[in-house]
Amino acid sequence: MTARHSALCVEEAEEAVKELRAVLEKAGITLPTLRIDPASLAREAPCPLVELGRCSVATAQRLAAVLR
User: Fold this and answer.
1) Contact (CB, 8 A) for 48 and 1
2) Among 27, 67, 31, 28, which residue's Cα sits nearest to residue 51?
3) Where are the beta strands (DSSP E) in 8-60?
4) Arithmetic mean of pLDDT, 39-68
5) Residue 44 to residue 49: CA distance in whole angstroms
6) Using one digit for the tens of pLDDT, what is the confidence trace for 5-49?
7) I need a surface site. Which of 20, 22, 46, 51 has the fewest CB within 10 A?
8) Distance between CA atoms of 5 and 68, rounded to whole angstroms?
9) 50: which strand partners?
10) What is the pTM of this model?
11) What pLDDT, on a 0 to 100 scale, did the predictor assign at position 1?
C-alpha cells in the first residue's frame, strides 16, 4: 500500500462517519462514540474501521426500528 492509498482510505472512512452521523441525526438517533477506530489507524498502512460504539438500549431500539 502506498501512502496515498492509505490517505485515501482514511479520507473515505472520515466521510463515511460524517455521512452516517448526518443520516442518523435525521432519524433522531445519536451514537455518541461514532468515530474512526484509532487502533485501526496505528498500522504502518492504515486500514480504518468505523467504530459505532456503545449506546443506550433505547437508542438501539430506535436504530433497529429505523432499519426495519
Assistant:
1) no
2) 31
3) 35-36, 50-51
4) 89
5) 15
6) 788 888 999 999 999 999 999 999 999 999 999 998 887 777 899
7) 22
8) 35
9) 36
10) 0.83
11) 56
